[in-house]
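Dear support,

I submitted the protein below through the web form. The confirmation email said the job was done, but the results page showed an empty box. After a refresh the structure appeared. I'm attaching both so you can tell me whether what I see now is the final result or a partial one.
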Amino acid sequence: MLDTSILSGLVRQPQGTVATRIATAGEETVCTSIIVAAELRFGATKSGSRKLADRVDLILSAVEILPLEAPADHHYGKLRYHLTSQGTPIEPNNMLIAAHALSAGLTVITANTGEFSRVPGLNVENWLAE
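What the results page shows now:
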């Protein structure tokens, strides 16, 4: 599951590292969360750039966008309780993305390993660090 930082990298550099990694993994093996799609669309709208909005549209049209469905809510509840009781909460949308990935049994591909690595049981990879 590609997160916002990874898809933002792809938007900025359509022929860069992320595109190479997707090609190597196979386009059919990658997806993203509806939460990530919403974050990207917010960023494009906030920027006021039609060019950026078009690029985001193009990227999102090429990636499967998974809807947020049960049992992600169960994972979210347990995860939020765990992280807040440990005093190590993560950004709210990242918590939703992590719960979504956990419920689907997916690895989160992110440049934000600092937050996502605090999620117990979540597999995390950074395709921009290599």
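Response: this is the final, complete result; the empty box was a page-load delay. Strands lie at 31-33, 64-66, 108-109, 124-125.
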